[in-house]
Amino acid sequence: MAWAILFLAGLFEIGWAIGLKYSHGFTRLWPSAATVVAMALSVWLLGLALRALPLGTAYAVWTGIGTVGTAILGMMLFAEPASALRLASIALIVAGIVGLRLLS
What we know:
Structural class: mainly alpha
Number of helices: 4
Order of helices and strands: HHHH
Oligomer: single chain
Strand content: under 5%
């Protein structure tokens, strides 16, 4: 169950990172409010997952999910570059997340 909670926390991590872009530096009310809610939920869920998971592993996976998801959505939503080297680097992060999960 802790891994499912951690995964959900990672999704909220993606949500607040994308929300930062839409909030335009917290100058738009609703995107800003959604971003703050997503931040709070992400950290709260991480805290719940830490009850059962090692800190270093959980934090690395949480930030990894956020990094990968944000990078992919940046390419999809904001036309950020999707070069082969960038995609390979994202794949390495995913491999690290999977490796940490398998070793925990």
